[in-house]
Structures are given as C-alpha cells and as structure tokens.
Structures
1.
Amino acid sequence: MNTAQVKKSLEAGELCIIKKCGKSSIWNTFGIVAEKAGAESSASKQLPMVACRQCLKCFKYISHTTGTTHLARHVEQGCSNESCKQLKLSVAN
Ligand SMILES: [Zn+2]
C-alpha cells in the first residue's frame, strides 16, 4: 500500500491514526497509521506509516530507520498549503 492509498483509506475511515507517545513534538501532529481493531482483537495492526492528523498526509515511517526529519519539515512548511485547507473544509462538511 502506498501513501496515497493509505490517505484514501484514512479519508474513508478504513484506517485510523493512533497516538504515539514519543519524545519528539512531531507526535503532537502525527500518529501511527493502523488498521481498525476488529471486534475480536483489542490491538490494532500498525502500518509502517504515519499520517498528519491535520491534513491526513501520509509518510513512510520505520522507527529508527527513517527518522522524523521529513515529518518535522511537514509541520514547519507543508501543513499550511492550500490542499490542506481544502481538505480540512471537506472534512468539516
Ligand atoms: Zn498536515
């Protein structure tokens, strides 16, 4: 599954974003993408991806491999662009 497909699934409510407890402040904005837990299982299956909770933009994330630099860059620059604003509006409706 690529990041565009994950974003679509998040918008459709098929995947969820779960809060990650970490030292970095980027985890105030990002969460781990996970499959929704079924009725029988209490733990949701996590994907090697994170998503911005404000605009649902997805990034590959493997702990200790990819790091969080690209995520911090999104917080600083990416999350104020027009597509983010439009998506926020469509989510609000
Ligand atoms: Zn964003």
2.
Amino acid sequence: MRPTAPELTRPLTDPRFYAGDPFPLYARLRAEAPFVWHDEPGFWVASTYDDVMRISKDPETFCSGKGVLLMDLGRELPEIPGALLYVDPPEHTRYRRIVQPAFAPSRVKALEPAIRAQAVRLLDALPEGEVVDLVQAVAVPFPLVVIAELLGVPAEDWRRFYEWSDHAIAAGTQQTDENMAALAEMAEFFLGVIAEKQQHPGDDLVSVLATVEVDGERLNDGELMMFCGQLLVAGNETTRNLVSGGLVALAEHPDQWSRLRADRTLVPSAIEELLRWTTPVISFFRTATREVTIHGQRVHAGDPVMLLYASANRDEAAFGPTAGQLDVARDPNQQVAFGFGQHYCLGAALARLEGRVMLEEILDRFEDLELAGEPGRLESAGVVSGWTSVPMILR
Ligand code: HEM
C-alpha cells in the first residue's frame, strides 16, 4: 500500500493553488508526509531537499524519457530529437557534450555588455515616480531580447518569440490549429536562421551549434531547430519570473533592499537567494525504472515522481531555521532552483548573469521600490511559478 495524504497532495494538481501562497502546504508536506503518493492521477511527491537531490542524481533509476511535466503523465510522448529535457543517458550525455561549449562561462560572460545594454534600454524607458507594471515593461521583454541576442537574430523579433513561446507551452495540452500554426511558423523561422548561419557563421549561439563537432558528431538541422525552440521556452518564462518575483520579494522586504543598497558586494548572494526564494520552476518529474526504496517507501518501476523544487528550497533540514526568511547574504546557499545532476539547467550561468545585471542597473537608478497594489499571481500546471502583474512605483 502506498501512503496517501489527499488533503496535502490534491492542491498540487489544482492550478489555482499556485496563484495563492503554497509555502504553508509545502511545510506540512515536509513535516507530515515527506514522500507520499498522490492518487489522482498517481505519482509520488518528493518534498524534501535530500530526496529531490538523491533522485535528481540517479537518472538510471529515475529517468526523464517518460515525461518531465505533470501534463506528460499517462501520455504517449512523441520522439522529439534534440529535446534535452526528455532524453536520458547515454544519449543525453552526447547532446550535452555538443551544446555545453556554447554555454561555457567565458561565452556567457562575453554577452554581458549586450545584456546590460538591453537592461539599460528597458529601465531608462520607465516612468519615474509613476505606477508601472514591471512584468510587461521589464520582465517579459528582458529574457526575450537576450535570447534574440544569443541566437544572433534582431532584438525586434522578441514579440514574435513571446507569441511562439506561449503557443509552444499551450500546445503541450491543446493542439489547436492556432497553436500548431504558431509552432510551424517558429520552426520555419529557426530553419531559416540555421541555414543563414551555416553559410555566414558569426559568433552567436546558432553559428557555434551549427558548426561545432564533438568526436566527429554534430547536431542535424532538425535537432538544432528543436534546440532553439527549447531555449525559447526554457529561458523565457523562468527568467521572467526570477525578475518579477525577485522585485516583489525585495519590495516586500525593505530591510533586505536597504542591505543591498548599502553593500553591493551582496549582489551575487542576493541572486542565489532570490532564486531560492522565487524558485521559478516549481517541479519537474521523473519516472522510476526499477523498484527502489525512498524515504522508507517502496517505489515501483513505472511510478512517476514529482520533484518539488519549490518545497526543497524552503527545507529547514537543508537551510536551517532561517529557511523561511529572505536573507540576501545567505552563505552557504545550495539552492536547487536549477535542478541538479545530469539535467542541471544549461542556462544557469546566463540566468544568473541576467539577474545580476538587472539588479545592478535597478540599484544604480532607484532608491525605493514600492508596491502600488496587489501583484497578480499566475495559475500554474505545477511547472512555472509566476507573476501576471507587478504594479510598482520606482523612485
Ligand atoms: C531563472 C531562470 C531559470 C530557471 C529557474 C531554470 C530552471 C531549470 C531547471 C530546474 C532545469 C532542470 C530540468 C530537469 O532536471 O529535468 C532546467 C533545465 C534546462 N534549462 Fe533552465 N532555468 C532557467 C533559465 C534558463 C535559461 C536562460 C536557459 C537558456 C537560454 C535555460 C535552458 C535550459 C535547458 C536547455 C535545460 C535542459 C537541460 C537538460 O535537460 O540537460 N534555462 N532549467
């Protein structure tokens, strides 16, 4: 018999739950039912830091190939070449070896001036002393123009990226004509970019990926196209919500904002703490490939497991008695917002850089962040923890 606690697990499959304050429930899960079975549609919930880490580090026992999202459960997944998130070793190792160099720290560092220019452009356009929705004005366009930069396409394309990314996410559950047409348009756009970069390579990511060879292997056009689409989805809403949620957190904790203003050396630790605090990806799934015991429970082959990063990042056993407090100087801070193990976020260095640059530029310009109304929270399928609006006055 698998242990259940329906009053604690049912909310996890209700999109409205994530638009409220989920953290009290996560605390109860960790205390009362740390590794428990959700009977509808049927998956384990891993809510402690230790279990999330242990499972993430063992892709042989807990694979990604049978789905990583709540909406993947029970579905026959199509073969998607180049979809890193859904591939297991040894194939995953091959893909990662090919794409990793394009995200090497030195390459990411080289993007800093371009990223800063985009942050400056967006922030300089903000009206000072007036209410502005920071989601639409800053958090939405910022990661999209950075991805355009990364791919070596004009920054003006960001609005199209926005639409495609939304349609790509929606197509996961609703394969409407509109969603599929947007996906086809995106595929055509990326294939055009790939063909162009193969003929006239620059120093952008697509050029690197289109020409790089590792042990005589390179990505084919289909894999490359899929990879570009994946970057758009993986690097967009996540970073958007780090920025939106990070600004809400700092506005709600004026003492932490003042500490940062007084000591800029705290910016890097503040970014780690805002990643922990906001945890933009609530959860990903794995599926057990064999029978195994976790937290004293027998997990059967084929059982899906939800890795609840948002709960792991508030686990007192890992972060001590201050786990529920925002501390921009927290050190050490082994937050798990980027996952862990083989699938550790490929864009982590880029996301950290975007977060740091945006925070530095905001600190340079504004003394005061004031919420001018209740921020809007996103209903979620258990993946993206987000904000629909953040009305703020910046002075
Ligand atoms: C705050 C921002 C971000 C967060 C919180 C985040 C979170 C994550 C997490 C939790 C995973 C692990 C998936 C798993 O274990 O199954 C992941 C993987 C990934 N992320 Fe991010 N991500 C962010 C930004 C980005 C950016 C900017 C990019 C690229 C432009 C990116 C590209 C990817 C890719 C390609 C993977 C798949 C890696 C693999 O399966 O080997 N992410 N991300």
3.
Amino acid sequence: MKYVILVGDGMADYPIEDLGNKTPLQVANKPNMDELAKKGCSGLLKTIPKGMNPGSDVANLSIFGYNPKKYYTGRGPLEAASLGIKLKNDEVAFRCNFVTVNNNVMVDFSADHITTEESKELINVLNNKIKSGKFYVGVSYRNIFIYPDGKINKLKTTPPHDIVGERIDKYLPKGENSKKIVEIMEKSREILNNHPINKQREKNGKKPANMIWLWGQGKRPKMIPFEKRFNIKGATIAAVDLIKGIGSYLGLKNIEVPGATGYIDTNYKAKGKYAIKALNNYDFVYIHVEAPDEAGHAGDVEEKIKAIENIDSKILGQIIDNVNMEELTIAVLPDHFTPVSVKTHTSEPVPYVLYSPRLKPDDVYSYDEFSAKNGSLGIDKGYNLIKKMMG
Ligand SMILES: [Zn+2]
C-alpha cells in the first residue's frame, strides 16, 4: 500500500456573500476531490489543539501524526532544520520576515513578496552589521535568525501576518530577553531603510523590505523519526521551509520540484508529477501546496478558488490517473482555515476526505466544509489521521 497526504494550506473557508453564501471549496470546480469523497469517507480533524495558535507549523505537525502539545517548540526551529541548520542546545531559532512598515504600521508581512535573490543581499548586509546572532536566507520573505542565548522561555512574539494594518508598537517582542531582540529589529530599520535594493524596489512600484520581524522562536525539538514510528519510508513535496523543516526532523526526504514557489504561481503540474515518481521509492508522500493560504491572507476569493481548482486538476487528478487506486490510501485536507474574510488562520476543525480500498464509502458525495460534517469518520484529533490511514 502507498500513502499520500495532500494538503491545500488554508483551503477551508467560511460562506461568502458574493459566492451566494457558499465557500470557495463549495464553489470551485473540483471533480477529483468530489470523486474521492464519493469513493471514500469524510470527517473533521482537530489539527489545532486547544490553547495553541492556529499556525501552519502546529497544524502540519498534527497531520504528520505528531501531537503538537508534545512535540512543538516553535516554528523557527522547524524552518531552520529545512535550511540544514543544526541547532545547538542553547540556540534559539526565530522566523525572520522581511516586512514593510510605514509610519509604524505593518503594511505588508511579506515585503511585497520580495524575491529570494533580493533577500540574499539584504541578509548579507544584516550579517555584516548585526553581530549578536546570525541570519540565514530562506525563501522570499521567510528567513531565519539564530540567537545564541537560550534564555527566552517567557519571550512573547507576534506573527506579522496577524497585525497587518495595525501599529507595530504594542506587538514588539515582550518578556525575557525581549529588549535585545527589539534592539535587533529596530537596528534593521536603520540598515534597510536606505539600501539600494529598496530604492530600486520603490522605483519599480514595489513595497520596500524596510524592517525585519522576528517571531516563532524556539529551541530544537526532540522528535521520533517517522520511519521508526510508522514503519514506512516517506518523502515530502513542499516549497515552503516549514514543511521541509518538519520533514527533516522526522527523517523524511524532501524532494525538490523545479518551479515550486510556495506562492500562487507555484508549478502544480510538476508537483503532481514528482509525487507520482516519488511513490516508486517511498511508501508515504506528503504534498503541501501553499497557494490557497496566500490567497486567503490576501483576501482574494478568485485566487483561492483558482488555487483549489489547480490542486484538484493538476495534482490530485494526475495522481488518480496515474496511480493504481487499489494500492493507494490518500487523504486530502487543509491544515487549517484561512478565511478570505478574516485574512488569517482560524482554529476550527478542518474537513478531510480519506480514500482507501479498505474503507467502505460513506454517503458524502462532495468535499467541502459542510459535507464533511456528515461523513462517517466523525470528528477526531489531527494526529490520529495517519493511524487511521494505516488501518
Ligand atoms: Zn497553513
């Protein structure tokens, strides 16, 4: 048996007036997801344990089969792992966003989706001028900062995508060691403000990356490898560092796909093709697509529907057409809701569909937030999905 989990990040949504009070999943043309619902079973998964933030880190850790309450130490260390950074015991990894701040208001948590090339140059400058830690280049606006002194247990930080349009003052890091971290963030403004790259960006009508925002900090997590736990060899197909990072702590191989950007123009067809190829060598493939989440954060309904349709036709459709369904167990789900009306993640249980030749189909015929409630799988904890898939 082969196992596939296909995650459309932030795909789930609320009913939208302009869509006749339907959700993007209900409106999207997604024959393959609906076919899986028909032939498989549906249900709801609690990917965000009570009291935890609805981040992609927590949610995806759940879907991988690891209880976040037990294994989660922060997003930073997971992303650092994907860059090959081995954290020492005392080191703390932060997610380091390039952001756009004007008049102390968070204008863009992604600095207008700054390119990795531009990020690379700005990270070099930061490393030359700030010596209290080390910066590493990630993808686009998503970079990493390693702070050597681990005394940050009570440090409180805020994800920048949660405060778009708000004054940053009250969201700067607070608590233990926060003064030093705030100093680094303030210093970045001096360094970045007049940098030629930002001057050029503004000339081109792009927002400047005029500040770094540090958040998601944590120390190295201790995880049992996936293969040891579930007795199968697995791989990930993902463009974003977070998923690669979780995968690398779990001992999963990340398969690089040309053209996978982690943004709405991600190369869906290639992802599907590489997933099918990966199934020759691995029993388990975890495919993650960031695009619907980005559309959700942007409040863009059209893009969200398009992303869902692309996942359905170019990834799921390709898999269904090319893999023997008698030997495939596959689940499709979002990690969390990213409603376009809220523009950020929310915590409700996510709809999922699970197909396996072993499972007797239930009476649900389409895949969406409301249909899934009537499925035979009921409501369960996110980290039980893998166990369910394996029977
Ligand atoms: Zn997510």
